[in-house]
Amino acid sequence: MQAGISIGGEEAVDESPKATIQLGQLMRQLAEGKPSVLLLVDEVQMLADEKQFGPLVAALRSALDAHRDRIKAIFTGSSQDGLRLMFQKEKAPLYQFSQQLPFPALERAFVEHLLTTYTHITKWKLDADKAWQAFEELDRVPLYFRSLMERLVLSASTDIPQALMQIHAEREDSAGYQAKWNALNPLDRAVLIQAADNGKIYGKEQREYISAYLGIPGGAMPIPTVQQAVKRLTTQGLVTRTGDRGAYAIEDPAFSAWMRANHTQP
């Protein structure tokens, strides 16, 4: 069975009651089928806007509660702060609804598997150490490494460094990192640099760096000013809190790597 509903676009708010009804109907249809259903909800943090999607999320939870014996759900998302809003905020509809499971990064066995596939297709062998290094430089993102391997196959090449450079260039171009950086004010840039460097933002040394970056004499930037910048960057999905108190990380590891390579000094 295949079905779907649209909850985006200009009419999203006006159509929310209709979408809520449709969601309940579709979930009931899924539950009435013979096999059990695994429901994958990707980028679920997009529904964290309670004003726009609150009723829809509440309907989703109600449907999953009603059909929990037949429908099992997995929620995934790329924003740690967005996921926290969905599942850890006390008044959120999905508060404590699921168990959070961090997925570990893929290890060398994944790289070796793709190298074996490459050899099967081309009859050539690639340097395993260079391949592993490329995977690490791509932040161990499987999609990017598969794109690199596909490029090598299609170009009949064994030049991993060259393919890696091309993948990096494509990522930066498609993600618009330079344009994203240009749109930030100097204070937000300085805070991002600290997040990319060591994750610490509110320490005296870090706040002194921020002041120096902005050319402001007199020592450390006041904490409230830094907090305002962090709030802006969090809202934009650029930084997220880590497990350490007062520590933050760049949401997009590739953007973090780009920043370290291009914008580490005032």
Oligomer: single chain
Helix content: 55-70%
Count of DSSP H/I helices: 12
- Calculate the terminal CA-CA distance, rounded to whole Å: 56 Å
The strand line-up of the biggest sheet is 1-2
Protein name: ATPase
Organism: Acidithiobacillus ferriphilus
Question: Could you please describe the fold and organization of this structure?
Answer:
InterPro entries: P-loop_NTPase (IPR027417). It comes from Acidithiobacillus ferriphilus. This is ATPase. This protein has 266 residues and is mainly alpha-helical. It has 3 domains: 1-103, no CATH class; 108-175; 178-262, Arc Repressor Mutant, subunit A. The chain has helices spanning 16-32, 50-66, 80-87, 108-122, 128-137, 142-154, 160-175, 177-182, 186-197, 204-214, 223-235, 253-262, and strands spanning 37-41, 71-75, 239-241, 248-250. The protein has a two-stranded parallel sheet. The radius of gyration is 23 Å and the shape is flat. The termini are far apart. 23% of the residues are buried. Residues 9-15 have low confidence and may be disordered.
Write a brief caption for the model:
The chain has 266 residues and is mainly alpha-helical.
Q: What are its keywords?
A:
single chain, Arc Repressor Mutant, subunit A, two-stranded antiparallel ribbon, ATPase, mainly alpha, P-loop_NTPase, 266 residues
